[in-house]
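Late entry, evening session. Most of the bench is empty. Finally got around to the prediction I had been postponing all week. Sequence below, unchanged from the version circulated by S.P.
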Amino acid sequence: TFRNFTYCSMDLDHQLLDTSYEHLMQLRKEAQPMRKPEVVKTHLRAMIILPRMVGSMVGAYSGKTFNQVEINPEIISHYQGEFSITYKLVKHGWLGIGTSHSSLFILPQVAA
């Protein structure tokens, strides 16, 4: 016997995972022509983008915020998590920026 997982008294397998996709399709049908549908926020980063989802707006969770993704034909069969990066990109600065005070007086090596 396996333990049944519930969230807010909803069964995970039948209700929670299906609700997001059905809600997405309903909002897409209700959207007026030439207007984008409402954004559906989801934590399902492992969900594969299907052809029926083209034209929808999805908010993929990155661990901190929901990043808006407009579903277009080029991203079919990708995972939603691919468009919401979970880490901050690192940019290394020049010598002396953000380091100790003494490193300000070290001259950087100039390429000849």
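Two things to note before I forget:
Residues 52 and 108 are 55 Å apart (CA to CA).
The longest strand covers residues 57-61.
Will write this up properly tomorrow.
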